[in-house]
Predict the 3D structure of the following.
Amino acid sequence: MTAAASASPLGDLLRSAGFARAFTLTTIAAAFGAFAIERLSGRVTLITVVAGLCVVAVGILVARRSELSLLRLAPVSVVLFLAWAGISIVWSTDKPKSLAGWISLAAFALLALTIAHVRDTLQTARAFGDVMRWLLSISLGAEILFGILLDTPFAPLGIQGTIAELGPVQGIFGTRNALGFVAVLALITFVVEWRTSSVPTGLSVFSVVLAGGLAVLSDSPTVLVIATIVALTTLALVLVRHSPAARRPVLQGTLGGIVVVGLVIAYLARNPIIAFLGAGSDFSTRADLWNTILDYVRSYPVQGWGWYGPWSLTEFPFLSINVMLGERHASALNAYFDVLVQIGWLGLLLFLLICGIALVRGWVEASARRSVVYTWTPLILVALLVDSMFESFTIHGYGWLMLVLCAARAGQSRSWRDRVRAQTPVPPELPHDRPGA
């Protein structure tokens, strides 16, 4: 794009704060509404929507290139993970499907990175909250329509129409676990909105009740675990934020020790905990699946079987795993095991690197900054990482979008790149549409 073109009305539009907000809202809605879009309009429609957003994202980045630094464009851990997943196509059993899975991974990473560069933390949280209010309201409305007014299931969206029996409900997200997970992410965002007074109090109350109610109605055994750990993380973060700066290192170390002890206790008491949650059958299914996956990991421990994202049920080893178990799993029901079987121990190490670096950076930033809005990133990350132990949402679609977005958000605040800032252009402050926009 030439200098003349960059000064054109199109360039001005692509650089405008209003267009950045519209792009962010549309991207989040498309990512979280992907299941409904595909079921109601077809896969081609979904691909067209995502591809169109990627074209717009490239246009935005080109138009804002004077504000950006190539060195700070993406976290190195994300780039390395994408590169290794792409290389795995070489030894995949079905290269076209593997390539398609990698393109989807790269596309959502591009969308996330674009949002991270055109919106700040408060603007991102506000956009996410606005979209979640609509999607959760639509989910509740669909459940009431088919569960009470029409009293019949709606097969295209998987709605069973059981809201009159208090669940489980799925909304427009396909499964109760997906709805419960999205509701927890929304609940975190709504509480942050309330604490920052970025939306009217009445709207905040409605939003919290909506997300909390749907989380309960989902009857997902993972929701209670995620919500409990997020609540404990919030308490720990509040304690750190309100402690004197000189005492924070000791306090951080103490909290780290408590986490390690808690994990050991949780592992030793896993059977009573599973029984309390009423998730015995679900956990048994997952344990059998994970044990079978480990058998296949031993064949290619370092490089894995090739990247696919969601499983291709007609390809090896996924077909073989399902045949052995007599099931039709579309994922490993665990993001870490999914990464392990697809791109091996090296891929899992890179994935953990993304998660670990982002969480540490986000936590330190939230501890040091006064505004409550900076707690949004680490709390969303905690929810993503905990849910990854029970589902594979984090390695594709909206889960991957949120992980890369949080990693980029945290990396912009605290990064080794700050050491070379003197040798690179410093981006100017992002424009705001209006206070709290």
